[in-house]
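Progress report, Aim 2. The chain analyzed during this reporting quarter is listed below.
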Amino acid sequence: MGGKYDILIVGGGPAGISAALTAVNRGKKTAVIANPPETSKLSLAELVTNYPGISGTGAELMQKMRSQLIESGAEIINGKALSVMSLGKTIGVAVGNDFYEGTAVIIATGISRRPLCEGETKFLGRGVSYCATCDGMLYKGKNVAVLGEGEEAEHDIEFLKEIGCNVTAFSGKGKIEITGEMKADTLVVNGQTVKTDCIFILKDTLSSETLVNGIECDRSTIKTDKSGKTNISGVFAAGDCTGAPYQLAKAVGEGNIAALTACEYISNLN
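Predicted structure tokens for the chain:
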């Protein structure tokens, strides 16, 4: 298996889908390398209220986006990209045992997070969140816990306090467990038990250097200019993998811009 395309998009979340729709509308042969939609971070959002014209659960919005992607005619390659490399005039992407080539490639992988503690994966979207600015308003006036440290954690703690949440913060180090029944309601940190309505887990993104050979990153996020260009000719990036803010509107906008830039890059080659 394999094939050649005008534009290959690595990632089937909001940024990747936005890029694909734009690329197809510009007449480019396009393929999206994607995991199942339920694995997208958007699918785990309890409620989306800050995207103009559309509201609902993250799972509902993700399903609508994936349906639109299917209807667009873009090819969907189910699987996980293992490596992206420049081949001179094209960019190669390894997906399992298969190999694909694109005149241009857009990286829209989002951010991958290793589970920090027991119960984290089980309760994602049910009392466990990775995004305070996305889900914080759902817990206004309620008790929330934050696991994480550093500048991002400090900003999110202040945000949660400003909107009226009662915040208990932990560094995220040591023995941690999240428990509950239908929803997470208890956090145990180094023997200390805290009752809470939601647990926000803040972690550094994983390194993108392992996926794209030679790509320039800043603290595990891909460095781009405003047009989505990276330091590698023919490789563009959009969405959460380019850094904060981790918001739906930003991801969709960057996907559109990266696709337009990739189309212009291909036209200039021709």
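The mean pLDDT is 90. Helices lie at 14-25, 58-72, 132-135, 151-162, 248-269. These observations will guide the mutagenesis work planned for the next reporting period.
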